[in-house]
């Protein structure tokens, strides 16, 4: 995908080339100009490297995500590869690009100068965000070719460059090109083309105007409506189903999380960032053995412990994201009270309580969620998070379970039972229930001080950008 909150500061990462990320505990508390200057500063430094090398730079996803996570993505312990399965991942080396780059005939090959002009010389105003191994810039190209065009005309694209000292290297860049160059699906981000000149790499992706799910779910004062959450989950589930069950060769995504789910103008979800994707087991193989890579809090426990990777590892990660959507909590959040840092561990005791399920639901929704839908979604999350991988559902079964949920209208706020429970909850401690803190746009009793946004698919042009809006943006 392109970039994400978990991928802003190279100095904060501690796991070599692993994509398991670690943030400073207080990072989310930074705001205003400091975030903006640090963010742009790191991208400007990479831009200098780009300009000094008369050639193209590499990228990964064309969508940018928010930059500064709230200390949630922490590195999992790396586990050595097991020798009892298929395709053991070898240690990184310097690949021969001519031999390893399998270019799809559908991809456009750009020159570095074309992308330099398309992004207006990689100027800071064009920055959309920063990923694990490069910055993402907005650009404009000819709709049917590679020539740059005037900003605001032609086709809007996201161009990602590869930092030479980035924590994701050429191997992940190749995975991006090789997978997304061949895989076409409405719920996968479209790779338009690439640039490879000398030791520089860039990738060109479709522009996703709504940005990342992570931004909408955790970084905006107005809550994402229930129906939109269910719609996004359904789209993301369809993307995983395609990878696992419908693609010519099964693919394990390996990095499913909110910052890797991008949204188009109508809030249709698309999976991005295939740098960690792996071919799934084939024949009589039950799993792939590989170094443990991913994001702590999302990775399946059996994968973290053994390095055995299967499609059910992605199903577990989907369960974590489903919980995040239901609760409004991050998978890992050290700012929560003790015992609530890990979302799955906190939620497990509540997953079987049918009559008290409301305690898990994001309080910012203020009862604007379907009772039946929430109950079914919680049951689905419990199945996806089963400790036994074999007991987890197929993603196609998840899709079928999710299909009716966006349309259910039995809102909890209209239920006398829910209202009574809310009164009981508020009388005990209105600001501490569900481990919630007072959030922007809400009063101490969690009543909204602003109205819900209207999500009609064409409201504004909020792109996944850094937490601080850039000049000229709403």
TrEMBL record:
Listed EC numbers: 2.7.11.1
Question: For ATP, which residues are the binding ones?
Answer: 160
Biased composition of type Polar residues is found at 54-69, 423-436
Q: Which InterPro entries match?
A: Kinase-like_dom_sf, Plant_Ser_Thr_Prot_Kinase, Prot_kinase_dom, Protein_kinase_ATP_BS, Ser-Thr/Tyr_kinase_cat_dom, Ser/Thr_kinase_AS
The signal peptide annotation in the UniProt record is none
Q: Boundaries of each Protein kinase domain copy?
A: 122-408
Query: Which keywords has UniProt assigned to this entry?
Result: ATP-binding, Cell membrane, Kinase, Membrane, Nucleotide-binding, Plant defense, Serine/threonine-protein kinase, Transferase
- Where is the protein found, in the record's own terms? Cell membrane
Q: Which GO terms describe its molecular function?
A: ATP binding; protein serine/threonine kinase activity
> Per its UniProt record, what Pfam families does this chain match?
PK_Tyr_Ser-Thr
Where does this protein chiefly localize? membrane
The cellular component terms of Gene Ontology attached to this UniProt record, alphabetical and capped at eight, are: plasma membrane
Q: Name a biological process GO annotation.
A: defense response
- What are the Low complexity biased-composition ranges? 81-97
- Region named Disordered: 54-102, 423-474
In which family does this protein belong, per the annotation? Belongs to the protein kinase superfamily.
Instruction: Kindly provide the name given to this protein in its UniProt entry.
Output: non-specific serine/threonine protein kinase
